[in-house]
Every structure is written in structure tokens, then in C-alpha cells.
Amino acid sequence: MTNSAIKVGLFIPCYVNQLYPQVGIATLELLEKLGVDVYYPEGQTCCGQPLGNSGYEQDSKGICNLFVKNFNDYDYIVGPSGSCIYHVKHHFDILEQTPEVKRVRNNAYELCEFIVKILGKTDLGASFPHKVGLHKSCHGLRGLKLGKCSEVQGEHYSTEEDLLKEVKGLELMALNRKDECCGFGGTFAVFEEAISSKMGKDRVQDHIDSDVEVLTGADHSCLMHMEGIVNRNKQPLKVMHIAEILNSSL
Amino acid sequence: MGHAQKATEFNKDEAKVNWHDKALWYVREKRDKSAHNVQGWEYLRQLGSGIKANVLSNLDKYLIQFETNAKNNGIQVHWASNAEEHNTIINSILEKHNAKKVVKSKSMLTEECHLNPFLESKGIEVVDTDLGERIVQLAEEPPSHIVLPAIHKTKEDVDVLFQEHLNTKPSGGNPEYLVGEARKHLRDKFLNADVAITGVNFAVADTGGVVVCTNEGNADMGVHLAKAHIACMGIEKIIPQEKHLGVFLRLLARSATGQPITTYSSHFNKAEEGKEMHIVIVDNGRTEQLSREDFRASLHCIRCGACMNTCPIYRRSGGHSYDYTIPGPIGSILSPGKDLKKHSSLPFASTLCGSCSNVCPVKINIHEQLYKWRQIIVQEEKQPIVKKSILKTAGVVLSKPKLYKMAGKSARFALKHAPRFMIYNKLNAWGKARDLPEVKHESFDEWYKKRRKNE
In this entry, which stretches build a coiled coil (chain B) (predicted)? Predict the structure, then answer.
């Protein structure tokens, strides 16, 4: 199947839609560059994760059903957020498992995984001459298994690293703690404010200590949290979603 | 006070938080090295998990088999359905021996049953002989970790504590000196003890014996010097056969501290001649947990503490912030089963990062169980009104695209134009240490619509 025959439903998570349109734009442009047939279903809202993770799964059924309705017609559902995709894949078990629900759950992919696994591409022709630190979001890493995490025995692999390594001029910096959680955690960020902020602060510091200029990742919720800390403390670190880096051609 | 408040308190001393985090991260890294050096580590975890699942499915059979074999070895076996019965049984054994002095080697079960205060109220001296346990006992605190009970204390803290209780000289926290003094102090307690109490790491059904793992040899020292040995175990400590120790002993110490094996793996199969050995088998809520299908696997736990060492929240909030005998991720899935109301904040003390499930040597799906407890807690316990109304409203708004569009637009408008004091105040927990995202002039939706028009 040529890429142009692949019909992709672009899923832009609610907070990315409202607060980080540039991440949505980069994702869309990237998919278009790769030649897939991208659609952006209007009327999409959210995956229901904020409710599920807070214990309000039962109140999220309307959201989940809307998601299925919006994305049922596509070969793949692709979004720039590991944790939202994880939620669709793992927590839509609260819905009746109709063929539509099963299809949507099976075909939902995080952006990097879709590019590497489904399209089989790693070199996207991007160029980004900076020292980059990769924050591997927990739901992407441990949930979707986009890479090997430090706790588990086995060969090293990382979907995001595969892509970043092909970016011209990009220097991927090694971190002291390869895959520590940033402390965002959805409503955890507010209801466990002290720990959440401390975790974010430590995660940011690891990047600074590792001479990182640009902190990136495949989950913008982690990035939103860490950017909030960087901006508050006026730290010398730029925060960008991995789609923005992969879409850049400086 | 819930976990968040206690964690906020702990975070007032940032240097201490950093130190606590680093100390436990060191243990976690040691665990990685040691575990990953074992060929087939992940398979070993699978085996451990499978054996435990088999045990839980056939627990009735194994427990009776264990009791029969233990009795055949001359061990006296007692059954306690709850903490109170456990304590009463132990007290009656002590009374029979007219015991006034007891040495105890580390047992989380006796902590769970609050045995120490119970025996002390009967005029019995109970001395915890594991060094870390002794430290927290002298400080009149509960352990903050199940394997490293005094991990929240620095060597300087211990120095001050020992000066007060053991009449040591100020040493500036010299570990060799302090350990030497503790050894002298404990040796005296060992020599004069009437009865020794130990926990149980593994109870072997087909031999009727129990295995206790320590690094200090304190279980052996206590048992061999006292007239009687009382071993206390939860019903889930059973393993079917002795050969299964080959799985669990390899998993336990590597997961706990990164050691290939604990310094002492002590097998107690029968009493020495002229002495008595008792085993107290305790339920105390375990059968009920066993009946909860989603949470049954929490009883696989072999109490290694790896989930605590890896948990980024535990490392930064300290064990006492959980206010439960077993702190950290595993405690947060065990405790709601004991008292849902009291421990309802614990399943929320997690980002669901999943690291705990990955280090667990018996593959308990801890983070998935945390998620499941959250759903139950919201249904059954009263929730903070603000949180509840925000999330219930979100459930409605996000299921209606038009409402969502309006809400998004007005929220972005407010964020962009409201004066700083309205956004950053004490009602905004996000904004305490973090800036809010800078609002762009349009959403992705709006940008996309414009682009379609121009096409």
C-alpha cells in the first residue's frame, strides 16, 4: 500500500488544540510530507484521560463514544501524545466492545510509532542543529512500549531516538536519569502540587546539567508542565514537541 | 491529613528531599545492575508471579498441607483471623513462658498488627533487633520503608538519637562507631531475651518450615539464644515446595537492595531440643483482598520494597507521608482494601508512571490497580466538591463539540487577558511553581478552518 492510500484521522488532543496549535500544525505538516492521506475530523474533543485518571471514568463514556464516532472511518488514528493514545488503547475497555470500538483502539497510534512502525521511515529529511534532550513520557515508554525502559532487562531500543538520530545537526544528549517521570500526571499536577513541581524541577535540572539546549518529547502534557517550570525560573532551556523538530528544516 | 499535605510538609526541607531521593535512587540503580546481570531475569519474574498465582488459587490446600507438615515437625501452629487475635495468641505464649523480655527480628506483619504497643502495655519489653528497626523504635516512629526502615534518617540524626538512648559520645555521625555501639547494646538484649519473634519471608508447604531473610543475622541470633521462637506470617507467605526458593531467593534480594542474596537465608524447620517453636498464621484482611478479583495479585507481594525505591513520588515524599504500615505503591493498593476512607488519598499519590509494575519481582500490575482503586474511591467516598464539579462538568463539555469549542475559546480569552494576580493566586495550584502556557492567538481548530478556506 502506498502512503497516499493510507487514510489517517489526525487526533489533536484538547490541550494541544487550545494551547499548542503549533504542535498540531507540525504534526499535520509532517504527515502530509510523508504523503499519507490526512483528515482532521471536526468535532473532536478529548480522549477522556483526565477523567479516567482522576477516578471519573464512568463520567467519561460520552467523551469516549464521541472519540470512536469521530475516528471510526480511518485506517489509522494518529496523535502527537503518547498518553492520550495509551488511554484510547487501554482504557476504552469501559465501552461496549463493538467492532467500531475495537477498530479504533487497535488503530490508534502515537505519531512517532506510526512513522517508524507503520510507514517504516526514520529519516524525514529534517535538520535541527541543536543539543537536544529527550524526555520519554511514561505512558509512551512504559505504556505503549515506544522504547526499552531502564527497569526492564533487554536490548535497548527507542522509537523517538530512531527518528531524532536521523535529524541533521542534532546532537542527542545523554541524561543522568534516562526515563524518570516528570511529575505531570494530569490532575496529580494540581492535587499533589508539591511533589509534582519538585519532580518537574528535578527533571528540568537533569536536562540543564546534561548541557541540553532543547528539551523535547512525544507527549506535550509532560512538556507543558516542564515548560511551566522553565519559564517560571527563567531557565536557559527551550521546550519543543518532537513533531516540531522532525518538521523543521533550518 | 492526606498524602498531598504530608508530602508538602516533607518538601519544606528541599535538601533533605534531594538526599532521600538520591539515597533510594542509588538502591534502584544497584537493583538494575544486579537484576540485569541475571540471564533470564524477566523469565524469573514470570515464574515468581506464576508460582504466587498458583498459591493464591490453592491457598486453602497449601495452608493445611503446611500446617500438617509443621505439626509433624513438632511446631505449634496457631491461626489468627485478625490483628487482635494475633496479638492475644502471642501474649498467651509469652505468659506460658513467663517471658518479660522479647527480641524481635524485622516483621512487617507485627507492625501491621501493632504488636509492640500491645505487648508493652502488658509490661513486656520488646526490642527490634534489625538496626534500622531499632533506630526507628528508639525514635518512637514507625518504619518509613519496609526494607530500609530508617532511610529517612541521616547518620547525624542517628548520632543524636544514640547519644540520648545508648549514651554514646558525639561522633559527627561516624557509621563504624555507631554500628559498633548498636551491636554492643543489642548483644546484651539478645543474651537476656526470653522469647524471639521473627517474621517469615517464605513458608514452605511441603516441608512445614519457614525461611527468614536478613542481612544482620539477627533472626538467628535471637532464635538460637531464646527458649522459644514465635514466627508470624500472613497467609500469602506460602510457597508450594522448597525448590521454589530457587526462584524467590534470587528475586528477593536483587529487587530489594541489589544484592545477589541476603547475607542470611535462615531455614527454621523445627525447634531445637528442649525449646519450642510456634507459627502464627494471620489473615487480617487478606482473604477479603483475595476475593477482589482486580486486586488479588497485590497478595503476590514478597515485600522487597523495589516499588518504593523506584517510585519518584515515594522518593520525594518519604514513607511517613503514606501513613500506612506498608508505604509506597504497593501500600497504596493494599491499604484501601483495609480502610477505604482512611487511605483514600493513596491511590492518587501517583502519576501512574508504571515504573513500580516494571520492577516488581512478582509482576504485580501496581499502577493498573492504582487506576482501578481511583474509580472505586470516587464512587464510594465523598470527594472534594471543587474537584468533583470540575471533572463532572468536563465530562459533559468534552462530550459536546459545540460546548467544548465555546469553553476553549473563553478559557483562552481569560488566560490571555486576565491580569496576573487573577491567574496566579493561592487558588491556582498549577501556578505556584509553574507558569501557565502562553496563549496563542488561535487554536488548532481555528487555524485549520482558515487553512481549508484558503485552499
Answer: none
